[in-house]
Design a protein that fits this description.
289 residues, three-stranded antiparallel β-sheet, alpha+beta, elongated
């Protein structure tokens, strides 16, 4: 009898072709991962992976098992979800920072409901001070959010990247520009996040520099800070503010990624990630911890 957890670990190693990266992705150390692979090889009676100075390679037996393993794991996940739903115990808590009106998010909600009609999805909206939407604190199972942020201990899959621009009052002299650089905003007051906010997140939305200006926690507070005080800040270009404000593209800041993030990948979360990738029409992503 094959152990599903050993098979799951084998699939990750086969996808990464690197024990270190696979262990990081699985949130375990390398020794138990190596033991799991050796135990699986004993179970099937064949060598599945070859290690060399050049890295890790699949044997013909390993390639054959990989083809079967993905389908086996998908079937097992579907069985778990159906049993949980039948027992009335299937709930997924989703943290949301990405725009809920985003067509990708709308497609994801529709697809998840169709595939898991018996699962209750609880959505937790969050403010701008926590880009993990409560994931790091254990308040949600999975987060549909925006980066960059500190990804330590999390698994992150990039769905899309969005260019960003500066939010300005319509009567601001810079509002007439076709594009801006961060240096154009160097002497301006910015809306900024509270102390203690994720430093990677804060540094990005502050344009990489310490800023002075009103402290904000929510999108509407950002808008009002610009409207009332003439401060500046950043927003994805797809977000159009009120008529009194304009967004001018920034040409020297990397785009902001829309991502799905999680810690422990149960079947409902794995399905969420797969459906999110399809809904946002991505062909790949990046995982990191």
């Amino acid at each position: 009898m094959l152990d599903l957890e050993r098979i799951r670990r084998f699939v990750v190693v086969a996808e990464e072709l690197h024990f270190g990266r696979a262990a990081t992705r699985l949130h375990i150390s390398q020794p138990p991962l190596s033991r799991a692979i050796k135990q699986l090889e004993a179970d099937v009676g064949a060598v599945l992976l070859l290690r060399s100075a050049a890295g890790v390679a699949l044997t013909p037996a390993g390639a054959a098992l990989l083809d079967e393993a993905r389908g086996l794991l998908d079937h097992a996940d579907r069985a778990r979800v159906r049993v949980a739903a039948a027992a009335g115990a299937a709930t997924l808590t989703v943290g949301l920072l990405a725009d809920s009106a985003d067509p990708g998010a709308t497609r994801l909600a529709d697809a998840y409901r169709r595939q898991h009609p018996g699962v209750e999805v609880v959505v937790r909206d969050t403010d701008l001070t926590d880009p993990t939407c409560g994931l790091r604190a254990g308040l949600v199972d999975v987060a549909l959010t925006r980066g960059p942020f500190d990804e330590t201990g999390l698994t992150v899959h990039e769905l899309r990247t969005d260019p960003v621009g500066a939010v300005l009052r319509a009567d601001d002299p810079l509002a007439r520009r076709e594009s801006l650089k961060l240096a154009d905003l160097a002497d301006r007051r910015w809306f900024r996040f509270p102390d203690g906010t994720d430093p990677v997140w804060q540094a990005y939305w502050h344009g990489g520099e310490p800023r002075e200006g009103p402290v904000v926690r929510a999108v509407q507070e950002c808008v009002q800070a610009v409207l009332w005080n003439g401060t500046v800040g950043l927003t994805p270009l797809g977000h159009q503010p009120a008529g009194e404000l304009v967004v001018v593209p920034l040409v020297d800041l990397a785009p902001s990624p829309v991502v799905v993030a999680w810690k422990d990948a149960g079947p409902l979360i794995r399905s969420f990630v797969q459906l999110a990738a399809a809904a946002y029409q991505t062909t790949g992503g990046r995982r990191t911890s």
